[in-house]
Amino acid sequence: MNSRRVVVALLVCTLGASACSSESRQSLKTDLATAASDVSNAAGDAADNAVEALARNIATQQGEEQFKNAGQELSGALSCDATVNAGVAKVDVNCTGTTKSGGKAALTGSTNEVPGASVTELDGQFTGTVDGAQVFSTQRLGG
Question: Which of 13, 41, 102, 121 could form a disulfide with 142 if both were Cys (CB 3.0 to 4.6 A apart)?
Fold first, then answer.
C-alpha cells in the first residue's frame, strides 16, 4: 500500500513539479529510500532462507550416510537446522537423530561455501557423535 502512495506522489511531483514543495520532495525521497531498503531486505531474507534450506537438505541426506558408514545407522531421518551467518559467509548446521540401537546422534558443523553448486555435497568441517562420543569427522558431507 505504501508503494502505491509513493508512486502516486512521484507522478504528482513529476507532472506538476511546481506544485511540490521542497518538504514534499524530501518526504518523497525518504519514502523511496525506505521502499528500496525494504525490497533489498526482503530479497536478502529470501536468499538466506534458500541457502539454509539447501544446506539443511544436503546435511540431512549426506549426514545419514556418514552415520551409516561409521557403523551407526539411524532409525529414521536426521532433523537438521541451518543458520546463515556473516552474510552467507558461513552456514552453521546442527542435526539430531536416533540410531537403530537407540543412541542420540548429533551432526554439527559449518561450511563457508554457498550450498547449491553441488546438490549432493557440502564442504566444511563436520562432526558426528552418538551419545556424546565422536564417531566421525569430515571436511565433506557427500561426494
Answer: 121
> What range does the domain containing 93 cover?
1-143
Where residue 31 falls among pLDDT bands split at 50, 70, 90?
very low
**Residue 107: φ, ψ to 5°:** -125, 125
Cα separation, 87 vs 58, in Å, equals: 20
> How many domains does the chain fold into?
1
Q: What is the pTM of this model?
A: 0.67
Q: How far apart (Å, rounded) are the C-alpha atoms in residues 118 and 142?
A: 10
* 10 band by pLDDT with thresholds 50, 70 and 90: very low
